[in-house]
Write a structure and sequence with these properties.
Order of helices and strands: HEHEHHEEEHHHEEEEHEEEE
Helix content: 10-25%
Largest sheet: 13 strands, mixed
Structural class: alpha+beta
Number of strands: 13
CATH architecture of the largest domain: Sandwich
Number of domains: 2
CATH topology of the largest domain: Tumour Suppressor Smad4
Strand content: 25-35%
CATH class of the largest domain: Mainly Beta
């Protein structure tokens, strides 16, 4: 594959990509390549971070925010041909700590890294309601149809965001490491995975029809008065007196429920990126040796 001596391993179900990536890191592999969508990539990230293992991405899946963000070739075969020429860059990751979605009894806390996006409230509920079969049959269209369906059913409970000494109320929030949301929408146009903070968007209305305007604003890249955008390295979210679970998702996969904290984990991952001399400082770029091996990170630090 692109001149790289790679061992191909197939995932077997939810969570298996994390296990496989962790085993690769412990086996002194210096390069792990993930072929899949945002959810698969998230699992791999949680298997190799924090550490020095390099991560390369071959696009797949439904939306693949990070592939679009890095302007990777849409065709994974073409991406594989170009991969040896990409350069690793150290970046920070988002780190979420929240309550596990309980099915009765006491559940352990959720602690996970995320590479692109965390959504709190409405979009996580859409993912919760979306069936695997519907998603596989229609792809992105399934999210759109389910989103329209649930906008008329979701209660839009009030969330409280605490960040930078402020307390802000909203009904939906997006915490972004990337400028894109859902693959195509630039809801945080000034944000980048190379920056040391999040871009946070807070949607404040409880009116259902207003959410159709939010969608239109995302498509046309317009700003509405009841959408507040800010930058922060840490934000705490709670659901106040809401008796039902308010969910959050990480990189397009349902992850947990509020209360939850989202904070930056600096210098957590070496991500392969297509070289761009105009935007990549020389000190942030390391020489890539695709077939080289080096010391594995201490797995006890994960």
């Amino acid at each position: 594959m692109g001149g790289i001596d790679a061992k191909l391993v197939r995932t077997e179900g939810p969570g298996s990509a994390t296990t496989l990536a962790r085993l690769s890191a412990a086996d002194d592999d210096t390069l792990v390549i993930a072929c899949g969508g945002d959810g698969t990539i998230n699992e791999v990230v949680n298997g190799v971070s924090p550490g020095k293992v390099m991560l390369g991405i071959l696009p797949g899946g439904t939306a693949n925010i990070i592939a679009k963000e890095l302007k990777l070739p849409h065709n994974p075969v073409e991406a594989a041909r170009q991969l040896p020429f990409w350069k690793p860059r150290r970046i920070g990751l988002g780190y979420a700590t929240g309550r596990a979605i309980s099915s009765g009894g006491t559940a352990e806390a959720v602690r996970r890294y995320f590479l692109s996006v965390a959504g709190i409230g409405y979009d996580a509920y859409v993912i919760h309601r979306l069936t695997f079969e519907f998603k596989m049959s229609l792809g992105v269209a399934a999210y759109v149809l389910e989103g329209v369906k649930q906008v008329m059913r979701y209660s839009f409970p009030v969330l409280t965001c605490r960040t930078g000494g402020r307390e802000i109320q909203a009904t939906f929030a997006v915490v972004q490491r990337t400028s894109r949301y859902a693959g195509w929408f630039r809801t945080a146009p000034l944000q980048s995975i190379t920056k040391p903070h999040f871009g946070i968007s807070l949607y404040k209305s409880r009116r259902r029809l207003r959410y159709f305007l939010y969608g239109a604003a995302a498509i046309t890249r317009q700003t509405l008065r009841d959408i507040e955008r800010l930058e922060s390295r840490k934000a705490d979210f709670s659901a106040g007196a809401c008796k039902e679970d308010v969910y959050f998702e990480l990189d397009g996969e349902l992850a947990g429920a509020l209360p939850a904290t989202f904070e930056m984990a600096p210098d957590a991952l070496s991500l392969l990126m297509p070289p761009d001399p105009s935007t990549t400082p020389a000190e942030d770029v390391m020489a890539i040796q695709p077939c080289a091996r080096g010391p594995a990170p201490d797995p006890t630090t994960r």
